[in-house]
Amino acid sequence: MLPRGMGRRDMERLLRTMKISIEEMSDIQQVILKSPTRELIIENPVVNAFDIRGEKVFQITGKLVETSSLAIPEEDVQLVVQQTGASFEAAKKALEQTSGDLAAAILMLKK
Hints:
CATH superfamily of the largest domain: Nascent polypeptide-associated complex domain
Mean pLDDT: 87
Number of strands: 4
CATH architecture of the largest domain: Single Sheet
Structural class: alpha+beta
Number of domains: 2
CATH topology of the largest domain: Ubiquitin Ligase Nedd4, Chain: W
Radius of gyration: 23 Å
Number of helices: 4
């Protein structure tokens, strides 16, 4: 929504004066945001890239279709089991609680 009394041309002129350019990235099919503990997946997003004095800023809008926890590799679970003598399930739970941090999971189970 444009400010009251400001037309599209006025807004475009203002953005050029501030050295801000906007590009709609219409060929993007999916956006995945990853953290150490989960993934957010947005299908068919509308992505706008703002170039503000050489820095890129992205605006992403769309429907969140999936969130998933990142899997803990079985090798990591086995390593924790070997180091602590804990059960497979306990080792996996400790890794999940520590966001996959091997050292923290081992220390947690050795207490």
